[in-house]
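just leaving the lab so this will be short. what follows is a protein written twice so to speak, once as letters and once as structure tokens for the fold. can you read through it and tell me how you think this chain folds. thanks a lot i owe you, the record is right below.

___
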Amino acid sequence: MAFRDTKSKIIIKTPEQIEGIRKASKLAGQTLKAVASYIKAGVTTGYINDLAEQFMRDHGAIPATIGYHGYTKASCISVNDVICHGIPGTLELRDGDILNVDVTPILNGYYGDTSSMFTIGEVTEHAKKLIDVTKECLRLGIEQCTPGKRIGDIGYVINKHAVKHGYSTVYEFCGHGVGLKFHEEPEVSHIADANTGPVMQPGMIFTIEPMINAGKARAKVDKNDGWTARTIDGKLSAQFEHTILVTPTFAEVLTDVNGDYEIPIWN
């Protein structure tokens, strides 16, 4: 989930805190894995949300989004031209849809935050490419997460890769510190100049969650709900998100439960 409401200084987590956040992050990833097989044509976004909430609660966690600034659901589910913060409800998924499911469980007081893209039936080659490039953007951002590099290096490589493929990077929402609170410093912009921003240090934990648009970068928030952020031109948007721990030597992807990042991501 992407916001700009951080207020405190960057927190360097202790070993005990890291272990708690690691468990919450693993549960976040497991939640997406648990609902994946239910995401198909004819299913409503509200049904997926209910499954995600039940899974989190069955494993001793509570959804961080419920009650957050008035939000009432256990997840965000963003379909097609929705960039982020889509509210689950009666919308029925159809063949050709693409969607992002975003979950943040609180487990024993610690937060883990992740999201992933899903496809319904046969999607267009254009949609597949957008999803693939967005996932590549995330990986490139993660590769920057070593001590001594700066937060701006993440956004620099993400935007460079997106633009290379003819896409635009949303700049109105960002990644963020996470773990002890839902949203902490630092802000992790997905468009930035290289060698800018705070220096990354071991013990920092934050999300990287690039939102890549097929058309223009701007977002518009639905006035009727105050949450749903859509592309201004109705074109598709894709997003992937992981929670990252900076260690003394590499980036540990705390929310990876599929083995995508089993080998440490070295710079």
User: Anything to note?
Assistant: Confidence is low (pLDDT under 50) at residues 3-7. The domain at 15-253 is CATH 3.90.230.10 (Creatine Amidinohydrolase). The chain is about 25% helix and 25% strand. The longest strand covers residues 98-103.
